[in-house]
Design brief:
The structure holds three protein chains of three kinds. Chain A is α/β, with parallel strands linked by helices. Chain A has helices spanning about 5-15, 65-70, 115-120, 135-145, 180-185, 225-240, 255-270, 290-300, 305-315, 325-345, 365-370, 370-375, 380-385, 415-430; strands spanning about 15-20, 30-35, 75-80, 100, 105, 125-130, 145-150, 170-175, 210-215, 245-250, 350-355, 390-400, 405-410. The longest helix of chain A is centred in the C-terminal third of the chain and has 24 residues, at about 325-345. Classes of the chains: A alpha/beta, B alpha+beta, C mainly alpha.
């Protein structure tokens, strides 16, 4: 916990934190943690990567943060992210863009990029991330750490600044595999302030081991050479650990990306309607304007490019005349994906793919991508997110430049136990590298 | 002319619809508020179960089919009083659909649907410079009742609302001052195209706004013009409606289901909820069951459902005639004085029992009831009443034709009433005179 | 997506677009919707829910309770005599 004194220096180098603690002494705290900046933190500014929320100092802790504090944790910082979670590289932000601990010219992934960065850089640190379409596993993979997004509804979303309410899940990133079980267990459980947390069965800790995994054929298409090689090596390691690996068909897989973006942006565009320059965040505008004009001027000036794009997309897909084709159909497709996972997971303990099709890209490469290119990048992480299944990313290799590669296990609804155990076993079998950190 | 209404009624819960803030009058602006009803980032809705219960009660009262499963939707629109710019309401699968309400127990007004939703806050204009918003009302539960365009005049719309509100008040125990809090969106078409007058408060204003629209639309049509489909608002002070926006600029609410709440299986809850008989239904049933005039039944029920219930008790013990004579007579005419005397009206039963047993006379029974109700002294009342009865009897002796006329039309009593009022020099209240005249005529029939 | 539709959507969403943005978003959204045509190919499915885990019947009792001080919530708001300041209504 010695890094507290050096926190500001470390942050100057990697840019993982937005707000940070001024404490230099951990005092009685049992552990230090950070949380993605879309989780409200009592008296600590919370902006969710958006300029429109600048100056918002919440009057309450998110349930996840509250439970971490109650367990003896000290919140040291709020991690940088894509605005409202809208992105794959944490580059769509009004604030600082976190830099990859293995190569600062590259992205940490997103949207919980700051969390993955903190988990990779800070010794013995645990960070809370939020996943809507892959925002925990993607940065975990790019930064070479463990990351888990539990089942939808496992961790209370009270205090989470919404992106897509039927998709958002709060999870954990850490360089230490056993942290996943430890901290998800602390945060899980029903919370009467979030109805969607109130139907969950008890989180088991039976340390059940995986016996067989299924690899969907569509999930090993379009990979970069390095990722494909590392993934194939990892399959051999899994087999040597006594786990069966079998290829399967998953017909709904290819439809997941459009279905996800329709549902996510439909919900997001309604969630973001509340940001109008009143009550919190940006409030300085000309109130003598008519309300329509006042709201439009604040929103146009304060939302970033990707936020505007997703608001437009999501407003369109739920409009009269388009709603059935997009919003209604997307929800049918979500059910197909849920049903496909159910069917496959009757015979297998997890569905396995690489986490991302390539290693962390450089920022100049990201700038050249179109919006659609970057949406399509999420094709491996989106299916489990759309279906609300728990999913885990573990580091599984490095490319020629030493950039980390990850693979992703997807479990059945509520079966986090088998994923925790997998991470703990994998940690023993895999030779993980830590980035060289000097501040 | 076709008129359809969308009626908003605040439901009498103790806490708000999606948060636990109290619904009682707040001491100052923005005191009964929390992150949820202020729409703060990170807040979340949790449904107050009582709102579902009230919704089901009203659905049943309106003869709606209660859906097995119901859920909520987000209606997105921008206005300073709507803290989330999203109203949580119902779109698909509202609580109830396809009902019918019988005005005066006869004329069917079809009910399209009933759903529940949250109220926005309140705005205040500050000159023309900006606005001020109080979110104390934000999140108060509302029921919205939507009718088919079955009403045919502004006066009928008002009468319909009056009866409906009386029923609602009784069925869900709405506080008495509920009328001002009733808000209506009024759809009206004189020709083919319809206009919607939004957010009209109170019965009187509904009639005024609709009447204004009838005249406005008729004028345009007569001049060969076309009615624009549009949304208008009602200016209470000037008594006119004003165009707010044309149809083609209507907001697209972009409804999606509310993902934070899930669904509600309400079949069992609906089956377990028994609602009280509504006043209009009670009046209709009583008129049929006891063969009494509909006006009398309505009079009893609208005076008080307790009075109507007393009528039924007396009728079951001593027959309908007794009930008409005593309950619709002196009990009813002195009902208002119960408030000041604080008497227990069930004591009336004992008096009527003694009359039925022949222990007291007709006149004594009337006086005792009156004294019980008003708290007057029996002996002085007896004297005064004796004088009143004598005055009436003497008049009837001299004008026996009134009895025959009364058989054909009970308005014949008015002649006797007028005479007695004039010749008693104001010693008796009109209610007392009416009661005495009717009682003594009835005894001679 | 044609410019007119983008303009209509933007107006509904209360986003004002510059000429450059209008041009760019028309292109981007056109690409994205083109890709979304995949959805038309996907099979239909009769039973689907609001969320992936079937949340149902979660309610609370009708008990008034305030856990966060309203004054604390108003602290950072632009207010006048406890009213929240807003823009002109019409």
């Amino acid at each position: 916990m010695s890094y507290l004194q050096r926190l500001k220096d470390i942050n100057a180098k990697y840019g993982m934190f937005h707000a940070m603690t001024d404490e230099t002494d951990a005092g009685e705290s049992r552990f230090l943690f950070s949380a993605k900046d879309n989780l409200t933190s009592l008296d600590m500014e919370t902006c969710a990567g958006s300029r429109i929320l600048q100056g918002y100092v919440p009057a309450f802790d998110a349930a996840a943060i509250e439970r971490m504090k109650a367990a003896g944790g000290m919140l040291v910082g709020k991690t940088n992210m894509d605005e409202f979670g809208f992105g794959t590289f944490s580059a769509n932000s009004a604030y600082e863009i976190p830099r990859n601990p293995f190569d600062r010219e590259r992205s940490c992934g997103g949207s919980s990029g700051g969390s993955a960065c903190a988990a990779a850089v800070l010794e013995g640190h645990v960070s809370l991330g939020v996943s809507t379409g892959g925002s925990i596993c993607c940065p975990a993979s790019f930064c070479g750490v463990y990351g888990i997004a539990p089942t939808y509804g496992r961790v209370s979303r009270y205090g989470l600044i919404d992106y897509g309410n039927s998709l958002d899940k709060i999870g954990v990133l850490s360089a230490k595999a056993s942290d996943l079980r430890k901290y998800i267990t602390i945060m899980a459980g029903r919370d009467e302030r979030d109805p969607t947390s109130c139907v969950q069965p008890e989180l088991k800790s039976e340390r059940r081991r995986m016996k067989s995994v299924a690899v969907p054929k569509d999930g090993i298409q379009g990979l970069s050479g390095d990722v494909e090689a590392a993934f194939n090596d990892s399959i051999e390691t899994l087999r040597s650990m006594g786990i069966d690996v079998e290829e399967v068909d998953m017909p709904s897989f290819r439809y997941a990306i459009p279905a996800y973006y329709v549902i996510a942006t439909s919900e997001a565009s309604t969630n973001l309607a509340r940001y109008v320059g009143m009550r919190y965040g940006v409030q300085e505008g000309d109130l003598s304007l008519k309300f329509d004009d006042y709201f439009s001027s604040i929103r146009s000036a304060s939302f970033g490019d990707e936020a505007k794009r997703r608001i437009l997309l999501g407003t369109f897909t739920r409009m009269v005349g388009y709603r059935d084709r997009y919003y209604a159909k997307a929800r049918q497709v979500r059910q197909l994906v849920i049903d496909d996972y159910k069917r496959i997971l009757q015979d297998h303990d997890a569905v396995l793919t690489p986490t991302m099709p390539y290693v962390a890209p450089r920022f100049d490469e990201i700038e050249r991508m179109s919006a659609l290119d970057s949406y399509k990048t999420d094709y491996l992480t989106v299916p489990p997110n759309l279906a609300g299944n728990p999913h885990l990313s573990v580091p599984c290799g490095y490319d020629g430049n030493g950039m980390p590669i990850g693979m992703q296990f997807v479990g059945a609804h509520w079966d986090e136990d088998v994923l925790f155990t997998m991470a703990e076993e994998w940690e023993k079998a895999f030779d993980m590298r830590r980035p060289e950190v000097e501040a | 002319m076709k008129i359809g209404l969308e009626i908003h009624v605040q439901l009498p819960t103790r806490s708000k619809m999606f948060c636990s803030c109290p619904t009682t009058d707040a001491p100052a602006p923005n005191t009964h508020v929390c992150p949820t009803c202020l729409g703060m980032p990170g807040s979340r809705p949790v449904l107050n179960r009582k709102v579902l219960e009230y919704g089901i009660m009203l659905a049943k009262m309106l003869g709606c089919r209660v859906n097995d499963t119901t859920w909520f939707s987000r209606k997105t629109y921008f206005y300073p009083d709507m803290s989330k710019s999203v109203q949580i309401t119902q779109y698909d699968n509202p609580i109830g659909e396809g009902g019918v309400y019988y005005m005066d127990g006869k004329k069917p007004i079809r009910i399209t649907r009933i759903h529940v939703e949250e109220d926005p806050g309140k705005t205040k204009r500050v000159g023309d410079l900006s606005s001020l918003v109080d979110y104390n009302r934000s999140g108060i539960p509302l029921a919205e009742i939507v009718t088919e365009p079955d009403l045919t005049s502004p006066a009928e719309a008002r009468e319909f609302l009056k009866q409906l509100i009386e029923d609602i008040r009784h069925v869900i125990d709405l506080p008495g001052d509920g009328e001002r809090s009733i808000r209506c969106d009024c759809n009206i078409s004189v020709g083919k195209e319809r206009c919607e007058v939004k957010n009209v408060t109170g019965l009187k204003n509904v009639e005024r706004a609709l009447t204004y629209e009838v005249i406005r639309q008729t004028k345009i049509l007569k001049a060969g013009g076309k009615i624009d489909r549009e949304t208008r608002r009602f200016d209470e002070e000037r008594g006119v409606t004003i165009s707010v926006r044309k149809k083609e600029f209507e907001a697209d609410y972009g409804y999606i289901d509310e993902p934070d709440l899930g669904v509600y299986h309400i079949r069992e809850l609906a089956d377990s909820i028994k609602i009280k008989e509504s006043p209009q239904k009670m009046a209709l049933r009583m008129s049929q069951q006891y063969g009494i005039d509909q006006r009398m039944a309505k009079q009893l029920v609208s005076t008080s459902v307790d009075l109507a219930e007393l009528f039924e008790t007396v009728a079951s013990r001593h027959g309908t005639q007794s009930a008409v004579k005593w309950v619709a007579g002196p009990v009813s005419s002195n009902w208002k004085s119960l408030e000041t005397s604080g008497a227990d009206v069930s004591d009336v039963m004992g008096i009527i029992d003694r009359f039925a047993a022949g222990e007291i006379t007709d006149t004594e029974c009337g006086i005792e009831i009156k004294c019980l109700m008003t708290g007057e002294d029996i002996e002085s009342a007896k004297g005064a009443a004796g004088d009143l009865d004598k005055l009436v009897s003497d008049y009837l002796d001299q004008n026996p034709g009134i009895i025959d006329d009364y058989r054909k039309n009970d308005k014949a009593a008015n002649k006797a009433i007028g005479f007695v009022m004039k010749n008693s020099g104001g010693s008796y209240s009109s209610a007392e005179v009416v009661e005495a005249v009717r009682r003594l005529i009835e005894s001679r029939l | 997506m044609d410019r007119e539709t983008v303009e209509r959507v933007a107006r509904t969403a209360h986003i004002r677009l510059t000429e450059e943005e209008l041009e760019r978003y028309s292109g981007d959204l056109g690409d994205i919707l083109g890709y979304f045509e995949l959805l038309d190919e996907a099979p239909n499915c009769d039973s689907y829910g609001i969320d992936p885990i079937g949340v149902a019947d979660v309610t609370r009792d009708d008990e008034p309770r305030m856990t966060i001080d309203a004054d604390r919530l108003l602290r950072d708001m632009n207010t006048y005599e406890r009213y929240v300041r807003g823009p002109r209504l019409s």
